[in-house]
Amino acid sequence: GDSVTQTEGLVTLTKGLPVMLNCTYQTTYSPFLFWYVQHLNEAPKLLLKSSTDNKRTEHQGFYATLHKSSSSFHLQKSSVQLSDSALYFCALSEWDNSAGNKLTFGIGTRVLVRP
Amino acid sequence: EAAVTQSPRNKVAVTGGKVTLSCNQTNNHNNMYWYRQDTGHGLRLIHYSYGAGSTEKGDIPDGYKASRPSQENFSLILELATPSQTSVYFCASGELGGRVEQYFGPGTRLTVL
Fold this sequence. Notes:
The complex is a heterodimer of chains A (115) and B (113). The mean pLDDT of chain A is 92. Chain A is built from no helices and twelve strands. By secondary structure, chain A is an all-beta fold. Chain B is mainly β. Chain B has a single domain, classed as Sandwich (Immunoglobulin-like). Helices cover 0% and strands 51% of the residues of chain B. Chain B contains no helices and eleven strands. In chain B, the strands form two sheets. In chain B, strands 2, 4, 5, 6, 9, 10 and 11 form a seven-stranded mixed sheet that branches. At the A-B interface, strand 6, strand 10 and strand 11 of A face strand 5 of B.
């Protein structure tokens, strides 16, 4: 079945520095990837999504490029802010004809930004 | 803005008791989902539905039942709660069709003693 791997459990960094969160996936279907962000005690919210190979997608200063050749969809930001402290999930869409859309989530990467 | 609400927001239950978690969405979405969130596991799909009257098993359905009496409402039922079901539960809704965003509710923190 489908799977998503996020290798970093916790990333701690200083405000203003760049960050990259790793996401790799396995699927037998054409991939559609998402990044969700979850701030403390809040619901997960969509950050960005893509199904286009080698095309950068951006939102709120974050960006990611789907690379089908390496099965990756890493999330990056050039300069993190204190408000970026949150839990970030990578998710893969599995097209299920009966349900229409099931998501497989990675375990999440917690980002902690220090002043 | 999509709107998914959950009740209760916090619940303490006893082992062996029955627990019902409720979810309501005003998005008129066909699909609804129940996930649980645990450290080290991310979000795992318990049950989902693609319309009123339908329920399907997700990846971890054991010990849970679901009910979708209407387009707007989707319940998760723990007939005999166990401490291993202590978790944070999220409901989500999404449009019918592939590759679309899911909108999440605020979550329910369930503790089973």
